[in-house]
Amino acid sequence: MASVLSRPNDQSFRRPGGSASRYSRPLSLALIAPLLLLLSIGFLYPIGLLIKLSLFTPELDLSSYRKIIEQPIYLSVMARTFKIALFVTIASFLLGYPVALAMASLKRRLAAAAAAAVFIALWSPVLVRSYAWIVLLQRNGVANNAMTELGMVEAPLKLIYNEGAVIVAMTHVLLPFMILPIFAALRSIPQEYVCAARTLGAGASTAFLRVTLPLSLPGVFAGCVMCFILALGFYITPALVGGPGTLIVATLIGQQATVLLDWPFAAALSTTLLIATLTMVLVFRQAFSISKGFASVD
Amino acid sequence: MIGETLTLQSLSKRFGRTVAVEDVSFNIAPGEFVSVLGPSGSGKTTLLTMIAGFEAPSSGQISIGGRDVTAAAPNRRNIGMVFQKYALFPHMTVHQNVAFPLRMRRFDRPAIKDRVRRILDLVQLVGFDDRYPNQLSGGQQQRVAVARALVCEPPVLLMDEPLGALDKNLREAMQLEIKRIQSKLGATVVYVTHDQDEAMTLSDRVAVMSGGTLVQLGSPVEIYHRPQSPFVAQFVGKMNFVDGECQRDEAGTCHIRISDSITVAASSPSSDGADRLQQGQRVKLAVRPESLSFAQPDSATAIPGHIDAEIFVGAFRLYLVRLATIGQPIVQIQLPASTSVGPFRRGESVGLHAAKEDFHVFAAPEA
């Protein structure tokens, strides 16, 4: 009997690369070829050009990169960009997780309604949403009028064209990118796990902290990476609701390329941002590697 | 002995207009193993979720060891539960899974270590501490789930079709294992299953459910030999049904007329309705395949029929016989493989016989 009981069950072991091996190798290649081609022409080639532009003028010339390092203004723009992206990611997580949790625990119809609300926010143009924040936050905007009428403040506050406004508006725009992956992760956690934790003596909050939260971490990771990377390269919203004190890398690159026509420097800034972003993703991945062991919850 | 009494008092659960469980009451003694048996949709899982505390009953009361827990949260009931798909936490090792309930109860580190080692020893999984659930076979996962549910020695253990996901051989081995662990620890067990063999093998008593109600509660022997309704009769084991009509003689004894010329005397003690049957009332006569045997077709007590098929099933032989009675039903007769009767030709006339206490009589449902 012991031999029967200790026999490994083949089904419970996962084949590495299980889903890909359903198709033959040539077919797999054929299926991804169009996208690969598009990416090569539309993405890899320009990036190659960009990097070349930043390094050669036409001889090897590192002066653009030297400029980034030597002039404090550019490093501080870089630092501000990362700071804003970090705050936006944290704010999106803090606001988005409860929404995802509520969506995942709602009954079918209400969950669909909540998902629709999130998707409508996702689909409405960024430009419109950014202008909406101007309407809300400007000197004679909704927020200031309400506060002065209620007597909370005597003179209108300066709510817009500062870092706070940029963070609020960007959080609003990026929230769906945080909510949806977390929602997907939470939805895939069987209710039985929570039930099991409860019968084993965990209260509702302990069951959440010990079971639901750790199992949703892959979704949290995906959401955070998406938010952070999108925030690093954000252009429209900071340009509209930000002020002179909130210059970030994307805006700076735009200025250099279109206003000052300093293409090598714009290219150097872009390359630096790209490398910094990739580094951050790798660091994130490493930090969240605890989630690898159970990436496939079934 | 860690088991405690589990009492259900007229427990009901309604979801909107549908009734999932209706007025179920029973009392389980400490250390008793009770299976809740029923087809899907019979309310057995709903009953279990109410005992566990995931669903509040619409009415009725649940008490454990005399303490009313109807309104208690699942984590305040001190119940162990093994889920259908085990529900092992995938982000925790075997050790962490089994230690989880101990941690929740704030046991200190050495006590946790000691208890986990002892329970893993009991389920024969020593040395698997650091494996993750997805590195274990189905049977091993099942035993981890049992260990996790039992490590705190809960007075009541609930099991929701815990062997449903295993193949047949492993399931049978695990049945014995569960029985061994349960009798060693003495926990009171409520075991939900739709598998009648499993219920019969494991249980001290079986509760048969149908359509949300408890239709019979009794020992496996009672359930099998003295079914109280046609549903229980056909759900547990095999059963032949023959239509008939009650005819009372001068002494008031009920005989069942199953055709113009054939009358069967039935005195089965389980057919408690037999005494209440009225003259001429339509009834269903039930008899198990293994209670029937062949007799001379022309003998006075034999039920005549014709052989329809003869099947060799290994341990026994199965004969299908078309009866020459109302509706000409086909009945099954099961005889030991070593039996000397036959072989029969198809269509050959035979007579069937059963002892009168092997016939069960049920009032036919009103048409």
TrEMBL record, chain B:
What are the GO MF terms of this UniProt record? ATP binding
| UniProt KW keywords | ATP-binding, Cell membrane, Membrane, Nucleotide-binding, Translocase, Transport
Provide the ABC transporter domain boundaries: 6-236
Keyword Iron set for record: no
**Reactions catalysed:** ATP + H2O + polyamine-[polyamine-binding protein]Side 1 = ADP + phosphate + polyamineSide 2 + [polyamine-binding protein]Side 1
Q: What is its EC number?
A: 7.6.2.11
Write down the superkingdom of origin.
Bacteria
Entry-linked InterPro entries? AAA+_ATPase, ABC_SmlMolc_Importer, ABC_transporter-like_ATP-bd, ABC_transporter-like_CS, Mo/tungstate-bd_C_term_dom, P-loop_NTPase, PotA-like, Transp-assoc_OB_typ2
Function, as annotated, reads:
Part of the ABC transporter complex PotABCD involved in spermidine/putrescine import. Responsible for energy coupling to the transport system.
The Swiss-Prot or TrEMBL record describes its family as follows: Belongs to the ABC transporter superfamily. Spermidine/putrescine importer (TC 3.A.1.11.1) family.
Quaternary structure and partners: The complex is composed of two ATP-binding proteins (PotA), two transmembrane proteins (PotB and PotC) and a solute-binding protein (PotD).
Tell me the protein's name.
Spermidine/putrescine import ATP-binding protein PotA
Name the gene that codes for it.
potA
